[in-house]
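#lab-general

N.A. 3:47 PM
ok so I finally got the sequence cleaned up, no stray characters, all 172 residues accounted for. can someone with queue access submit it? mine expired

B.Y. 3:52 PM
send it over

N.A. 3:53 PM
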Amino acid sequence: MNDFASVSVVVIISAILLVAFFRKKNVFCLFTDGALDGLKTMLTVAPSIIGLVLMVTLMQKSGLFDFVGSVLNPLCEKCGFPVEVLPLALIRPVSGSGALAVLDNILENYPPDEFVGKVASVMMGSTETTFYVIAMYFGSVNITKVGKTVACALLADITGIIMSVVSVSLFL
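B.Y. 4:20 PM
back already:
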């Protein structure tokens, strides 16, 4: 498989160069123009991503996730929501890497074939890193009014969180 990947990269690059040659295009100029466009996009998106990373760090370090978890804990127990996946439900819309670390911690304590492990796995696949996606896509085109988008996206995340518990209870 590694040989296939190596050969395919060489074939793709060769095909690009051949097409450019026959169309009489300056590949280097096209490459540098594309790199400049990429740099401009990065500079446009960077403030949004920096703000998001700052927000996630502040929420984690301040103990806000722990506080919200302790407040929601009694409600989760009454509804049959596994309390063990609550940290994943809280961090997933904010941070993909943070959610992956929480999922890893959950799966160390609850194997993937147990109820909690199944719910955590389904939840990870059924939700999105909402704030990252909004910061990235909206920031790249300078859209600042994202209120309704955030509300709808968080509603979709809540639906994914609830349905992960329901679907694992019913089908797995």
